[in-house]
Amino acid sequence: MKPGKFCRICSLFMVFYSGLFAGQAYHVSAGNGTESGDGSVSNPFLRIMQAADRAQPGDTVMVHEGVYRGRIAPPRGGEQGAPIVYMAFPGDTVILKGSDVWEPVWQEVPGKAFTYYASPDPALFTDDSQYDGANPFEVKLVGSRSSPATTLGQVFVDGERLTEVDEQARLVPGMWYYDSTGKNIY
């Protein structure tokens, strides 16, 4: 490739890339971000929601290498011609997960073969940025006749998603139930 052609390609890339940063650029880092970060490169946020809460139309949120857990519900999406852009920092691998690995000591329900329960430790639920609470099992979803009300929580066993039921009596293998009174998952 001729040097002149290479420079034109680089220039086009730089124009495109700089266009992403028409507004403020916020940085998020699972590796070295903090709750008290200001979103700069040298003092990044720890959580994506910290940047989402600050981002305004035309801003860009650069998410650096790492695994990010928790709900992300941006309060704004931007405006026509000035979206809020969320992107992985170039060359970084970013993984978003709304799940945590939980390995409790399960207790068998007396008189109910193959039915177990455990109570999730409240310390698992640290995402207090949501108006409806940090524990997704406490957030009720509105149901219909064909889909009874359930929670925002989900349960996976060995990579398979289990189906939530709205009462303990309906439990069969492959299903789960959350008892909001006792705070147990069955």
Structural class: alpha/beta
Fraction in beta strands: 15-25%
Q: How would you describe the oligomerization state of the chains in this entry?
A: single chain
Q: What's the total count of β strands?
A: 15
Strand order of the largest sheet: 1-2-6
> What Rg, in angstroms, do the CA atoms define?
22 Å
Mean pLDDT: 84
Order of helices and strands: HEHEEEEEEEEEEEEEE
The percent range for helix content is 10-25%
Main sheet characteristics: 3 strands, parallel
| Poorly predicted sequence stretches spanning 5 or more consecutive residues | 5-20
Outline: elongated
Please work out how many helical segments DSSP would assign: 2
| Alpha-carbon distance between the two ends | 64 Å
Explain what this protein looks like in three dimensions.
The protein has 186 residues and is of the alpha/beta class. The strands form seven sheets. It has a three-stranded parallel beta sheet, with helices on one face. It has a two-stranded parallel ribbon with strand order 3-7. It has a two-stranded antiparallel ribbon with strand order 4-5. The longest helix is centred in the first third of the chain and has 17 residues. The N and C termini lie far apart (64 Å). About 9% of the residues have low confidence.
